[in-house]
Write a structure and sequence with these properties.
2 domains, two-stranded parallel ribbon, globular
């Protein structure tokens, strides 16, 4: 999150995080923290030392622009001081194949 983000932006981010935690049945098992920084990957990497495991979603960008995970998840995984698990939503066999081929 940008250091000068509005309170509305911060509240929207909190709501998305809380919704994700609820939907994954992780309430009481995770930490929720809003991070501030100008560069997303750098900000995340600096914070990873504080945690046993970092779980983040894969990029939705096409295979031609970001070959496997996307720029931010790839940088975090590469430079993190803790293990990083990158997850991607399964969208069905047809859509997954088309995305792999077309990017």
């Amino acid at each position: 999150m940008e250091p000068n983000a509005s309170e509305d932006d911060r509240e929207t981010a909190r709501q998305w995080i809380q919704k994700t935690i609820r939907l994954t049945n992780l309430e009481g098992k995770t930490d929720m923290r809003l991070l501030e920084g100008k560069k997303v990957a750098t900000t995340l990497v600096r914070t990873t030392a504080d945690y046993d495991l970092v779980v983040m979603g894969a990029s939705r960008e096409g295979v031609f622009s970001n070959v496997l995970f996307g720029e931010i998840p790839e940088k975090v995984a590469r430079y993190s001081q803790s293990p990083v698990m990158i997850v991607q939503r399964y969208e069905g066999p047809v859509k997954s194949l088309v995305k792999r081929v077309m990017g």
